[in-house]
Amino acid sequence: MYKTFTQNDLLRYLYGEMEQNEVRMLEETLRFNDDLNNSCIELRHTIDSLDSFFYKTNSSAFTIAKIKSFARGYSSKPSKVIDTIDLILN
Fold first, then answer.
1. Taking 80 as the threshold, does the pLDDT of residue 57 lie above it?
2. Of the candidates 43, 33, 54, which has an alpha carbon nearest to the alpha carbon of residue 13?
3. How many domains does the chain have?
4. Would you say residue 1 lies in a domain?
5. Host H or E run for residue 1
6. The whole model's pTM is what?
7. Domain for residue 42, yes or no?
8. Which domain range does residue 56 map to?
9. CB-based contacts of 18, cutoff 8 Å, min separation 6
10. Most buried of the four, 44, 58, 70, 90, by CB within 10 Å?
11. C-alpha to C-alpha distance for 18 and 66, rounded to whole angstroms
């Protein structure tokens, strides 16, 4: 099965929010697609940099965890009714 992966897919992968079958397909694609692999590495580095920046500015770990938790609570999917994207609260 062929699937085109987006940056949103990479973010879901890096935050552990993908289903196992999607993880296998993405990891297989990462082995052979250098551009996607480089994007994944850059996103991981950006996430790590943001995390270290937040902790260095004396933000409480609890506050950061709450913000990340809130952001993970939303997902997007194409609407079945019209050509827009619906935000779904998980």
1. no
2. 43
3. 1
4. no
5. none
6. 0.57
7. yes
8. 7-89
9. 9, 12, 26
10. 44
11. 20
User: What element of type H or E holds 14?
Assistant: helix 7-14
**Other beta carbons less than 10 A from residue 53's beta carbon:** 10
pLDDT at 63: 77
60 sits in which H/E element: none
Tokens 């991981």 — which residue?
44
CB contact at 8 A, 23 and 13: yes
In a domain, 32, yes or no: yes
Decide: 37 and 27 in contact? Cβ < 8 Å: no
Asked whether residue 2 is domain-assigned, the answer is no
Q: Which of 16, 6, 24, 22 is nearest to 76 (CA)?
A: 6
Please name which of 1, 23, 3, 21 lies closest in space to residue 12, comparing C-alpha atoms: 23
- The SS3 of residue 25 is helix
